[in-house]
């Protein structure tokens, strides 16, 4: 979950940074238009509109500076606090296993003594001072102390990790939402005050005069065949266009002849 949150936050902040650079470029363009505009009202409008885009870019940088520590805190939590807690838990498990091993060894030695005592047989290590048993007891005592210390450390770190998860993550998300809300409100106020449209601009007579010397000419149009003439002159064409032309000509001649006879 935390890796996904970090990745999404990083992409979100990267997108806001790219958007701020686009706003800055728009501001430079509009400011340049305002400088070159001869009409006073239009020049002021373009200049103010460009300055508004630059203000939006500054708001974005300020928001990124406010929200960027959230990524650092999440990175610290994910890459330092969580691995440190895992390492402490691993050490605690090793200490617990060592302590339980000594406990099992002491129980085995006690059972061995009881069995020899029941059989009324002498036990060599008991007869020689039982130094091994006393050594195991000493090791078990030290292992118990290490186990108790590691258990206390694990409980403390788990509590701190849980508090950071419950409180700090909520605080970081609230800071992110507050920064984004402040950024959008500031941008809305700036752009609302820079609404100076429509703008009257004097255009020169040659503004909409386009150069026709670079027009594209398709040379294939001159070499394309004249299908109507070709089909009219070819009565045997498969499409029947030549036969249709002959029929029209014959009908026209018959109508002309009938008109002459009538006259």
CATH level-four homologous superfamily name of the largest domain: Arfaptin homology (AH) domain/BAR domain
Say what the CATH topology of the largest domain is: Substrate Binding Domain Of Dnak, Chain:A, Domain 2
Whole-number total of structural domains = 2
End-to-end Cα distance: 103 Å
Oligomer: single chain
User: Please, what is the average pLDDT?
Assistant: 78
- Helix amount, in percent? over 70%
Task: Please count the helical segments.
Answer: 7
SSE topology string: HHHHHHH
Rg, nearest Å: 47 Å
Describe the structure concisely for a colleague.
The chain has 263 residues and is mostly helical. It is 81% helix and 0% strand.
Structure report:
With 263 residues, the protein is mostly helical. It folds into two domains: 2-193, Substrate Binding Domain Of Dnak, Chain:A, Domain 2 (Up-down Bundle), CATH 1.20.1270.60; 227-262. Helices cover 81% and strands 0% of the residues. It is built from seven helices and no strands. The longest helix has 79 residues, at 40-118. The protein is rod-shaped, with a radius of gyration of 47 Å. Mean pLDDT is 78; it is low at 227-241 and 257-263.
Tags for this entry?
single chain, Substrate Binding Domain Of Dnak, Chain:A, Domain 2, 7 helices, rod-shaped, disordered C terminus, phosphoprotein, phospholipid binding, metal-binding, metal ion binding, cytoplasm
